[in-house]
Amino acid sequence: MKQEMLINVAQPEECRIAIVEDGVLEELYVERTAQDNYVGNIYKGVVINLEPSIQAAFVDFGVGRNGFLHVSDVEPQYFRQGGFKPEDAVERDDADGSNGPSRGRQRRPGARPRVKPPIQDILRRGDEVLVQVTKEGIGTKGPTLSTYISIPGRYLVLMPALGRVGVSRKIEDESVRIKLRDVMLELNPPKGLGFIVRTAGIDRTKKELSRDLAYLLRLWKVIVRRIKKSAGPTDIYEESDMIIRTIRDIFSNDVDTIFIDEKSAYERAREFLQLVMPRHVNRLQLYEGKEPLFHRYHLDEEIAKIQRRTVPLRQGGSIVIDQTEALVAIDVNSGSFRIDDSAEESAYQINLIAAKEIARQIRLRDLGGVVVNDFIDMRMEKHRRGVERALRDAMKRDRARTKILRTSPFGLVEMTRQRIRPGLKRNVYSDCPACRGSGVVKTPESMAIEVVRYLMLAAQNPAVVKVSVSVTDEVADYLSNKKRRELARLEDEGQMTVQVLGIKGVTPEHLIFECWDKEGREVKFTPY
């Protein structure tokens, strides 16, 4: 299998990174320079408000929007009597990490779980807190914050609150886990700091892990100095740009080549590779072709497809994706797909194909939250379990956390996917000003009926002697032709003059309704 990473930064306003496997687009990351990205950044913030009803604090961390800090994301270091200073969190001397968080730590048999005190007993207005952005703000919601700091390297993640050495849960082989843990202990990391070995750390040499450890420790010392010197709210540490971040987190031995189509970005990526992965520098190449990089690999056409509501399947059939504020609904249609005139086998096979495509579309569109998959009904229990396994296997390569439930009695497979930032669609598109994002607008007939209702109300006001109605040409034609008698009757009943103006180039629901009295003064009109 040939895997390539394509980085398109030819236009300074946008960075696009694609992972292509045997010519098929498998992963896509898009970031606009005009859109602020705070995820992973560390700030010294100030508590602005406390909400005991939802056990959360709102924190000003210096970006213009307050962040949301839930009590579950407050590190136990903040529970000390007599208040807490952010710099206290970076001066640990506990050899066994006993002051670290209870999250992720195995308790002694029979020990009671630590119960966190209420948020109002931990923090007060004006308190300074060291926070990291874990999720972008979506809609009117501000960014989600956590006091559990984590700084990723290439093979390791520095987690100061952890206070011990650990291994990623995605590494399931126990012998590999033991080996990695032993290597880390041999490197003798500083007491009081925690480190997690990432999946990229598998099969890495002790020297490579040591280099990454040294890099993270140097970075942490810089962060500690900034924490002690700076007063909140202020930024302490900012994540690398998207190119460095993606190479750091995604590049593996499976990637044969990295193509970058811009010289300065290429030099920046080369410098990073020489620092952390010198053996793989030769895989980085500057693309100098005249044909745009994504166009050469036919990716622009593929990217246009993933924005559509209906996704056709190559073998026949399709999936339909509808995204709402609360959840994503995905429906599987069989279309012309048939196998041996067997309805059950046809449903099973198209569901298997759809499961793989659903996982791919969720990754490409960066959909998050609750996802409900409506597969074609199957009677046999083994077929239902087979589709569930296919979906789970296809979702394994997803870097976001997912949880998939078993098929419900209604034939639905519900799942959740970690939402870190708004989906790709929200980054590329804005709501239509005509329909306000609903996807539908009123017909000319509906608008004409609404105008007549307004006129009936205006006719009841004795002060109104003249009414002006501005609508689209189509609505004006409908009123002038099919509603002419009603308009004349309302003019007589209300002793007023009605003027209908048709305007070109406005939205279908455009309506300006103005009323005047006999002195030429405007009469305020509020129908409802």
Q: What is the C-level CATH assignment of the largest domain?
A: Mainly Beta
Low-pLDDT residue intervals, each spanning 5 or more residues? 92-113
Measured distance between first and last alpha carbons: 63 Å
Q: What is the correct CATH architecture of the largest domain?
A: Beta Barrel
Roughly what percent helix?
A: 25-40%
Task: Using the alpha-carbon principal axes, give the shape.
Answer: globular
Query: How many beta-strand runs?
Result: 25
Tally of individual domains = 4
Q: Please identify the structural class as seen in this structure.
A: alpha+beta
- Describe the sheet with the most strands: 6 strands, mixed
CATH fold label of the largest domain: OB fold (Dihydrolipoamide Acetyltransferase, E2P)
CATH superfamily of the largest domain: Nucleic acid-binding proteins
Structure in words:
Helix content is 29%, strand content 25%. It has 528 residues and is an alpha+beta fold. It folds into 4 domains: 3-36 and 241-300, eRF1 domain 2 (Nucleotidyltransferase, domain 5, 2-Layer Sandwich); 42-106 and 114-237, Nucleic acid-binding proteins (OB fold (Dihydrolipoamide Acetyltransferase, E2P)), CATH 2.40.50.140; 309-428, no CATH class; 444-523, Hypothetical Protein Ychn, Chain: A (3-Layer(aba) Sandwich). The strands form 5 sheets. A 6-stranded mixed beta sheet has the order 16-17-18-19-21-20, covered by helices on one side. Strands 3-2-1-14-15 form a 5-stranded mixed beta sheet. Strands 4-5-6-8-7 form a 5-stranded mixed barrel. Helix 8 (343-365) runs parallel beside helix 9 (381-395) and helix 11 runs parallel beside helix 13 (484-494). The longest helix has 24 residues, at 206-229. It is globular. Mean pLDDT is 83; it is low at 92-113.
